[in-house]
Amino acid sequence: MTKEQLIEQIRLKKSFLCIGLDVDLDKIPEHLKELEDPIFEFNKQIIDATHHLTVAYKPNIAFYEAYGIKGWQSLEKTINYLNQNYPEIFTIADAKRGDIGNTSTRYAKAYFEDLSFDSITVAPYMGRDSVEPFLAFKDKFTILLALTSNAGGLDFQTLEYNDEQLYQRVLKTSLNYKNSENLMYVVGATRPEYFQKIRKIVPNHFLLVPGVGAQGGSLQDVCKYGLTDDIGLLVNSSRGIIYASNGTDFAEKASEKSLELQQEMKTILDAQ
Amino acid sequence: MTKEQLIEQIRLKKSFLCIGLDVDLDKIPEHLKELEDPIFEFNKQIIDATHHLTVAYKPNIAFYEAYGIKGWQSLEKTINYLNQNYPEIFTIADAKRGDIGNTSTRYAKAYFEDLSFDSITVAPYMGRDSVEPFLAFKDKFTILLALTSNAGGLDFQTLEYNDEQLYQRVLKTSLNYKNSENLMYVVGATRPEYFQKIRKIVPNHFLLVPGVGAQGGSLQDVCKYGLTDDIGLLVNSSRGIIYASNGTDFAEKASEKSLELQQEMKTILDAQ
């Protein structure tokens, strides 16, 4: 998918919502657990009930890897289901990978080619030759961790040297990577005070923003400085949507929660 | 495995060698490719031919993930084969994972419990709550990226603030994490000039050292400042050993290359 196609979808649906498919077998409705592939069935029903309200889905790979081969099968079925039925949806493998050059290429091929994800999250610590192998894929996006929403994000990401914090340096340095137009960045919704500084460095790149909902971030605060003329935001909610109910009405409730967020986004977009 | 057991194995075998099982189907001998699981068969023969010369094996997970479900099956068979036949071997999942708290717990369970690896490599960028879920497992080790061997390692890891470089800060900060006695660190062999500084901060922790061989690092240089009274080093070689030949003699040649390194290590240990 191209950036233009993503923007078009956002304008069409009046939504820049991303739904996190972080499926935990302990949290899904009882009636699904007897099925052959409860994780895929859960995802399928969530997707069918919410696809018109969201522009992106983001399975966190840890939740699939945790179930070994079975988890991997559920992931494959989920991404195939998305690509076959809703090709207009932007898909994000939340994998936070990154390794030396030839090894990053392996990860990139696995997620971009074999699984046909549109994008993958990548950790920046190993620098240029760990990121560029991902950037080399046309119409695929590499979403670099910049400023994460968790408490530990402040251990290193805001360390300051020469009046510049590490996450700012990560943003600036990565702009010099080859094919940096294929970059997006993870910026937590729990850190709205940083969005203004971030937009000074990356005025046009998309930001993937987790932390709205369960983690306490505010959509209004994020949009105040994060929104660009081309929107430039994908705001993720996981638990708040997919676990809105653990009864037989889980998909319906997920749709209701998605609609609430989409309506809030529509108001913001209409006011632009 | 405990740290004491690992040290005992090193003294017994006069080796602190780790062999990287980074298996690429394009590089393995032709005669294996007709078998049902060429990757596992390759690993099995390498392991059988080298287990007496090495104390650790390190599959890089990217190489398995690249083959999807089949790759995951090869990985499971490989770790099970190691644990059943050579329980004295220290096993490292080179996964470079790391995510917010509850998600890191998922990765930790997958690698420490389901696959029964002794250790996993973890990226530090997301800080304390992304690392501590791994550290919570008793007799399991979390190998944090500190100073990596690749060129891009210098993009951020050596940034300096208050006379301290980022990798030094990572070392110091992580010592305050809960269960920090379960930490080890990745330090590239291509950066021998840093080992003295690193040992001032972590005088006793084990360092996993990639970059000897194909990447150009020197074993002598690494040992000069890296070696401790309890050895404290695991030196990894991947391509230099497992691809020493791509003929039917690949396991024999891998054993010869391992013996060369082990003999060099024996000389260093005997001189201690």
UniProtKB/TrEMBL annotation, chains A, B:
What is the protein name given in its UniProt record? Answer: Orotidine 5'-phosphate decarboxylase
Which pathway does it take part in? Pyrimidine metabolism; UMP biosynthesis via de novo pathway; UMP from orotate: step 2/2
For this protein, the record's Gene3D superfamilies field holds: Aldolase class I
Q: Which Pfam families match?
A: OMPdecase
Look up the domain of life of the source. Answer: Bacteria
Q: What is its EC number?
A: 4.1.1.23
- Residues covered by the Orotidine 5'-phosphate decarboxylase domain: 16-254
Active site at K96
The record's top EC class is lyase
Coiled-coil annotation reads none
As one GO molecular function, the record gives: orotidine-5'-phosphate decarboxylase activity
**Gene designation:** pyrF
For this chain, the family text in UniProt reads: Belongs to the OMP decarboxylase family. Type 2 subfamily.
As its record notes, the protein acts as a catalyst of: orotidine 5'-phosphate + H(+) = UMP + CO2
Origin organism is Aureibaculum algae
